[in-house]
Write a structure and sequence with these properties.
Blueprint: H1 3-14, E1 19-24, E2 30-33, H2 45-54, E3 58-62, E4 65-72, E5 77-81, H3 85-96, E6 100-104, E7 120-122, H4 126-129, E8 139-143, H5 148-161, E9 165-168, H6 172-184, H7 189-192, E10 195-196, H8 208-225
Parallel strand pairs: 5-6, 5-8, 6-7, 8-9, 9-10
Antiparallel strand pairs: 1-2, 1-4, 3-4
Helix pairs in contact: 3-8
Length: about 230
C-alpha cells in the first residue's frame, strides 16, 4: 500500500474516524473516502454510504470499472449511564456483538466490581468523567438510572456530540418532563427528538433481560440502518 494512504488510514484510526480504501482492480490506483467529505456526485457515493453502515468490504461495479472497497470503521461502543439490572443483562449481549462497553454511575452501592466484573466501570458522576474522547458518532449512549440528576448531563452531552444512538429509560410522562428540562436549556425540538424514549424496540419487554434485548436491538438498528431505520 502507498505510504501516504497508509499514513492517512492510521491517522483516521487514531481519531476514530471511518474510512474506505478504494482500489481500482484494473489500474491498481487507490484513494480514500471519508463519510464527512463524500461528494454526492462521486460515482461510488451510494455504495460507500451503504458500506459505511454495514461495515462490510467488497467489490463494486461502476459501468465497466470494478473496484474493491476496503472498509475500516472505529469499534462501535456503548456508554451506559446506570449500573442497574438492565445494564447487567446488557453486558454479555454487548460483548457477543463486539461493542466496547463503559458503565458510569456515581452510586457506589450499584457500581461495584462484584456486580460488573471485567467491565470498564466508573463510579463517578457523568459530568466528572464523560468527555468528548468517550463519545462520538460511533458511540451509543444509554441512560437508565431514571434519575435526572445523573442522566440529564449525559443526555445533554450526547446530544451535542453526534452519537449515533441516544436512549433513555422512563415512561412517556417521565420523558415529557425530560423534554421540558432540555427545552429550558436551549435544546431544539428536532435535537431532543433524537432521544429514543421510552427506550428500545417496542417488543413488549418486561424483565431487565428483555429490556436489554430491546435496547441492543435498537442500537444495532441505528448503527446499521441509520436514517433508513
Amino acid at each position: 500500500m502507498e505510504k501516504a494512504l497508509l499514513a492517512k488510514i492510521n491517522t483516521a484510526r487514531a481519531n476514530r474516524r471511518a474510512v474506505i480504501l478504494v482500489r481500482d482492480l484494473k489500474s491498481g490506483a487507490g484513494r480514500l473516502i471519508f463519510p464527512d467529505t463524500l461528494a454526492d456526485d462521486d460515482p461510488l457515493a451510494q455504495a460507500a454510504k451503504t458500506r459505511f453502515r454495514s461495515g462490510k468490504s467488497g467489490r463494486e461495479m461502476i459501468g465497466e470499472q470494478e473496484f474493491f472497497l476496503n472498509v475500516d470503521l472505529p469499534a462501535p461502543r456503548i456508554v451506559v449511564i446506570g449500573a442497574v439490572h438492565i445494564s447487567q443483562a446488557l453486558v454479555p449481549m454487548v460483548r457477543e456483538c463486539g461493542f466496547d462497553l463503559s458503565i458510569i454511575d456515581p452510586r457506589t452501592a450499584f457500581a461495584t466490581k462484584e456486580r460488573f466484573p471485567s467491565v470498564n466501570l466508573q463510579a463517578e458522576w457523568p459530568q466528572d468523567v464523560l468527555t468528548s474522547d468517550m463519545i462520538d458518532s460511533y458511540t451509543a449512549l444509554v441512560a437508565v438510572t431514571h434519575d435526572p440528576k445523573i442522566d440529564d448531563f449525559a443526555l445533554e452531552t450526547a446530544l451535542q456530540s453526534g452519537c449515533f444512538y441516544i436512549g433513555a429509560l422512563g415512561s412517556r410522562k417521565t420523558h415529557r418532563a425530560r423534554v421540558d428540562r432540555l427545552t429550558s436549556k436551549g435544546f431544539s425540538e428536532d435535537l431532543i427528538a433524537r432521544i429514543d424514549a421510552p427506550i428500545g424496540l417496542d417488543i413488549g419487554a418486561a424483565s431487565p433481560a428483555e429490556i436489554a434485548v430491546a435496547i441492543l436491538g435498537q442500537i444495532i438498528c441505528a448503527l446499521r440502518k441509520g436514517d433508513d431505520a
